[in-house]
Write the structure tokens for this entry.
Amino acid sequence: MTAGRTTDARFMRVALRLARRGVGRTSPNPPVGAVIVAKSAIVGRGYHRKAGEPHAEVAALRDAGGHARGGTLYVTLEPCAHHGRTPPCTDAIIAAGLRRVVVGTCDPNPSVCGDGTGKLRQAGIHVTTGMEQAACDALIAAFRKHITTGMPWVTLKLAASLDGRIATVTGESRWITGADSRRFVHRLRAEHDAVLVGAETVRHDDPALTCRMRGGRNPLRVVLDGRLRIPLQAQVLTTTDAAETLVVAGRGAPARKGRSIEALGASVLRLPDRAGRIPLSQLLRALGRRGVLSVLIEGGASVAAAAIAARVVDRVLIFYAPTFIGGDGRPMLGPIGVRRLATAPSLRPPRLRRFATDVLVATEMVRTHDRSTV
């Protein structure tokens, strides 16, 4: 790598760190970070804080003021050239007199991809693209999937003993993993638009599903409950002042129970079901239409299995605790119907991370057309 590209990569990594501050807060927009460099020093920093507020480029320009003229802008995503809730960023960049713009990755929206860089080049600004592209692409994975498919990005989170059990034979599950792992899960909730669990998890564990970290954001709580069996005393229904709750039921679920749930402040979404079971792909499409870009599935075993079997999971996070529960404990996955290894869902090589005594295994699902890349 040449000295120039090394310098560009270094400043783009600063922009990436800024962008990550907005993860989970910008929907339906992607997280974006930007820095402005003049005379080899950063003179402006910015990131997109939330939808409706200034984009990262504009925030960085405001921070730099007159120091931006003749400088270089590093931005993780191609600047927009169209009017949305805010004016085009390209207009502000051109007006600021920047000499050069370095872009991490192109806008994944096929209808506007290349418009921003094209407009900047027409204005005589030198544009470099693809800097730290893999990291920039990973940052906007949820936005990319939603804008191209209408579906949210799905993370499946599991917490299990070393032998893959999520509860004892009596159903006890608090707590298999340690405090550090649980704190990280609250961060995950803050970074996702919605958290999804099944009715059995609500009935047995009664989770609040809120984000209990300083400055965190509560996700939309989605409960998959085809027959509306969750109790009205459940925390997800009695704490609707803290976070929104959406209960997803089948068309034949009791109307009276649905009205009682709505009276508590939650919403009920009725979808076509098959014997009380709602296809997850159908639910995720409905969430995508509501502007949900990312979903964190937290349980239980049947919902996790259904998500894997339906091939709707993008990322898998499994926290393993150093303990055994045994074969009479509850497995972390229900049946997924694999009869031959050749048809089993494939995963990419995992990455490992320690959380005190626990180990996090992080990986992504491999789509059928991607199998040759594993």
About this structure: The first helix runs from residue 3 to 20.
